[in-house]
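User: Show me a protein chain along with its predicted structure.
Assistant: Here is one chain, sequence first, then structure tokens.
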Amino acid sequence: MFLSPPEPENQEPLSPDQERILRKVRRFSTISVLIMVLGLAAVFGVIAYRMLRSKTVSAGDVVATLPRDARILSTAVADGLVVVTLEVGGAVEIRTYRVDTLAQTGRLRFAFEP
């Protein structure tokens, strides 16, 4: 598997114990290199997956549907979110959307106590 350098003329041969230790060191280093390569492949795989799965949405691609009696009170953009405040049936509701994908990330409804 590994090529060893040529041995000089004056070097004495290794003892069986030394050969065994040398084989163990080579095996451990091979395993270590394989684990490192697998780790790097996993990291690059995650990066490639994220790059391929990320979608950018142009302005005309998304239609947000609101309830029939909803009225938009205000909108704001902050920290990568679009925040829309609505009045739905007399109650106030806040909906948040991601700026990059325009996917809805949350809904907060305010209700009156009975």
